[in-house]
């Protein structure tokens, strides 16, 4: 739900100038009902000057009248074309101070495992600058020898859905350019769920000499079963006639 600009100051004005319930003001301003009650008691927003939503084209006076007449009525924010898109984040992502030292590791991971991502995409994912990304790509960063690649999702610098959306965008760009991709590249350019659901492709090493003539299917000769040798031929047992001849010779 969209909130009015200067929501807390707007809530202060509505508490002071209307008979709307705390619930109605809280729903309209995107606040908790107890917080609005704290404004009325003077415990919250002390010293905050009220912001008139009617004079600033955020709320129609008719909405206030309807709300005062019906405690269950929900106030509707007045459509303001000038405010469209104001909630969209602009510029690089804000990174807390406690996580800023992890950004080089996240950048190195993205550069290593997703080289198809542009510097602009990496900058939006982890909240860094293009010169920093370029220095890590070219391995000219002052601390490059001590940086280990770590998944930015694991570091909490971005969400998995954001990373998947970025690689999906890179995949569409690759497809539009008509660039052929290997199996590894194809897996990198899909989301995590799609990658886990793919069937592994058979691979065969080609660096071994003579392997190019090797086939997995057997020949016709291999299909013929060799006759099973009998015991006599296996142990090379002498014939019974030969044994008799040997006895005669020894008897003589």
Automatic annotation (TrEMBL):
Entries under InterPro entries matching the protein: TrcR
Record region (Disordered): 192-252
Pfam families from the UniProt entry: TrcR
Biased composition (Acidic residues): 219-229, 239-252
Name of the featured protein: DUF1013 domain-containing protein
Native species: Rhodovulum marinum
């Amino acid at each position: 739900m969209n909130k009015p600009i200067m929501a807390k100051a707007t809530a202060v004005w509505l508490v002071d100038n209307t008979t709307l319930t705390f619930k109605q003001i809280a729903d309209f301003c995107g606040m908790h009902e107890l917080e609005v009650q704290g404004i009325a008691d003077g415990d919250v927003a002390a010293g905050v000057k009220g912001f008139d939503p009617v004079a600033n084209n955020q709320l129609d006076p008719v909405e206030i009248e309807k709300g005062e007449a019906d405690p269950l009525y929900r106030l509707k924010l007045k459509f303001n074309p000038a405010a469209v898109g104001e909630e969209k984040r602009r510029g690089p992502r804000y990174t807390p101070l406690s996580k800023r030292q992890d950004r080089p590791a996240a950048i190195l991971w993205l550069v290593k495992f997703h080289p198809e991502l542009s510097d602009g995409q990496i900058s939006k994912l982890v909240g860094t600058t293009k010169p920093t990304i370029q220095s890590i790509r070219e391995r000219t960063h002052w601390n490059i020898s001590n940086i280990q690649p770590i998944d930015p999702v694991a570091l909490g610098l971005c969400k998995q859905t954001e990373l998947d959306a970025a690689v999906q965008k890179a995949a569409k760009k690759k497809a539009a350019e008509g660039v052929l991709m290997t199996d590894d590249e194809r897996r990198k350019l899909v989301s995590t769920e799609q990658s886990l659901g793919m069937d592994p492709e058979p691979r065969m090493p080609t660096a071994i000499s003579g392997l190019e003539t090797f086939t997995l299917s057997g020949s016709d000769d291999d299909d013929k079963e060799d006759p099973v040798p009998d015991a006599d031929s296996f142990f090379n047992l002498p014939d019974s006639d030969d044994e008799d001849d040997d006895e005669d010779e020894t008897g003589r």
